[in-house]
Structure formats: structure tokens, C-alpha cells
Write a structure and sequence with these properties.
305 residues, alpha/beta, Rossmann fold, 2 domains, two-stranded antiparallel ribbon, DUF58 domain-containing protein, DUF58
Length: 305
């Protein structure tokens, strides 16, 4: 089963003249990023207008740690004295830089492309909007943000927001995603946005590895209302979003009880994973308010670090 895809742009006719290349690059850059960023800006502004300001913790400038330099680190951040004692380059980090860093893992797998009704957003669209709006809010509070799929360190500013938007526009080929916290800074914070319908062991492993390095965070499950209610009857063919998995039944109603039990078990497992690591867990449905979802995420990051 495929879903219609739409694109938007201006029909300007044949491009001629010295600015042709510039115009083409500008149009390529402008789609599809501005709609996501504009909606995220509006959502973030609505939350702030509601009086939900962020409580800032004290910042210190004490030395925290050395870490290997990564692509994109400015040359001025490299500690050349420490680097001179080894074969690699090292960055000298201060305590507040780690404490004010937030890593976002957004599931870009095919499963997140599901929507049971054309009036509802895809799970991936809701996740991208929340991740983008949360990035805007955090940066307005002076915090650094990174998108895990980019493999770059947390940064702040308009360029970083554009990178995050570009990263959120990508998709992955597999049915289900798996988080990877290997590049997360110690003592930072993390937000995982996913339907978490794939192997739960990968989630447990990533959260445990992050927790061992002092990272606190949030597991935020995003589900379509049909995935919660299982409204199917009679002969039904269930296929994964990639078509790799397929199951046909003549009596879909007979599967409902077992399905709902397994979904409840999955939520309990995710809740236990979060509790054991000192993280928070919640479920959001795509037919519910995106503003309330953003507010929950925003306030969840206020918890103990």
C-alpha cells in the first residue's frame, strides 16, 4: 500500500540569466524545510506565550572532561597541550557545556510513516514537528541541541536549526528504528521519539548505555489512534510499511484482545526501562494536541539530571 506524496514549489517557467544557478539552489533549499520550521516556530511561540518559561539552572565554568574532537568542532576549542601528548585532538569541555546539551533521537524508520486516516498526521511528521519545536525552545534558553542521526555534537544557532530540519526530512529504509546513544555527551540529556514498535532490546541497551554515562532523558512514544484501538474487523491484510512483513486474517476481531495485551506489555516494558534509568516515559497519540505534547516534553526535561 502506498500513500500519495505531494510537493510544493513555484512554477516560474524557464530559468535564464546569471542568477539561474542561485535561484535553483535557493528553491531546492527552501523545500521542504520552511514549512516544518515555520510550524515549529509557531508551536514554540504558542507555548512561550502561555507563560511556560524555562527555569535555568546555575552555570559553572569548572573543567569537566577532555573528549576526542569531532567533525565540526572549531579549532579554538581544541586543547593543543593535551592533544600534543597523544596522536589525536582533544577538546576541553567545561561542566555547563555538558549539562546544557540535549541529544534528540527521532525514529526515521518506515513504521513512523503510518497514518490511519488522511486527516491525521503521520507519526514521523508529528515526531519531526515536536523535535523541531523542542530544539527551538531549548536554544532560546541557551542550550545546545544535536540530532543523533547527524552524528554531530550539540550546537546552538540558526545554522544548527537548519541542519536539524534537514536531518528530520530524511527517511530510513528499515521497518523499525533502533536508538544509538554512542555519541551522546556524558551528563547531557536525551529525548527519544518513536513508536517503539520494533525490538525493545535495542531501546533498553541504548538507555542503559546512556544512563551509565550520567545521561538523563525521556522516552516519548508516538502512536496513531488506530494502533491503540485496533478497529479492524473481518478479512484484513496487515502489512508493514515496507511490505516486508505481511499477515492475513479472516477474523481480525479475534486478534484484538491479544494485540491490546501485547501493546500494554510493551508500554509496561518501556515504562520499566525508563524508571530503572531514572528517565521518564509517556505515550502521545497523533489525534491529540501537539501543543500539549510539546509542553509535556519541555517540562519533562526540567526533572533531575
Amino acid at each position: 500500500m502506498t500513500q500519495p506524496r505531494s510537493t510544493s514549489g513555484l512554477n516560474t517557467g524557464p530559468n535564464t540569466g546569471p542568477n539561474t544557478g542561485l535561484r535553483a539552489r535557493a528553491e531546492t533549499l527552501s523545500s521542504p524545510l520552511p514549512p516544518l520550521q515555520a510550524r515549529a516556530e509557531q508551536l514554540a511561540r504558542t507555548l512561550l506565550m502561555g507563560g511556560h518559561g524555562r527555569r535555568q539552572s546555575g552555570m559553572g565554568d569548572e573543567f569537566w572532561q577532555y573528549r576526542p574532537a569531532q567533525a565540526g568542532d572549531p579549532g579554538r576549542s581544541i586543547d593543543w597541550r593535551r592533544s600534543g601528548r597523544s596522536d589525536g585532538h582533544f577538546v576541553r569541555e567545561k561542566e555547563w557545556q555538558a549539562a546544557q546539551s540535549v541529544h534528540l533521537w527521532v525514529d526515521l524508520s518506515a513504521s513512523m510513516g503510518f497514518a490511519s486516516d488522511t486527516a491525521l498526521p503521520q507519526k514521523s511528521g508529528r515526531a519531526a514537528l515536536l523535535a523541531m519545536a523542542l530544539s527551538i525552545l531549548l536554544m532560546k534558553g541557551g542550550e545546545r541541541v544535536a540530532l543523533a542521526s547527524l552524528g554531530t555534537p550539540p550546537r546552538i544557532g540558526a545554522l544548527q536549526l537548519r541542519r536539524i530540519a534537514e536531518g528530520l526530512s530524511q527517511t530510513a529504509g528499515e521497518d523499525y528504528g533502533a536508538p544509538d546513544a554512542a555519541l551522546f555527551l556524558p551528563h547531557a540529556r536525551a529525548v527519544f521519539l518513536s513508536d517503539f514498535l520494533g525490538p525493545v532490546e535495542a531501546v533498553e541497551k541504548a538507555v542503559a548505555a546512556a544512563s551509565d554515562r550520567g545521561i538523563s532523558g525521556v522516552l516519548y512514544q508516538i502512536l496513531d489512534p488506530a494502533e491503540e484501538a485496533f478497529p479492524y474487523r473481518g478479512r484484513t491484510v496487515f502489512t508493514s510499511m515496507t511490505g516486508a512483513l505481511r499477515h492475513e486474517t479472516l477474523r481480525a476481531t479475534d486478534l484484538k484482545t491479544r494485540y491490546l495485551e501485547r501493546l500494554a506489555e510493551r508500554k509496561d516494558r518501556l515504562r520499566e526501562i525508563a524508571r530503572h534509568a531514572g528517565w521518564r516515559f509517556a505515550t502521545h497519540h497523533t489525534d491529540h494536541s501537539e501543543l500539549s505534547a510539546l509542553l509535556w516534553l519541555y517540562e519533562a526535561l526540567e526533572g533531575p539530571r
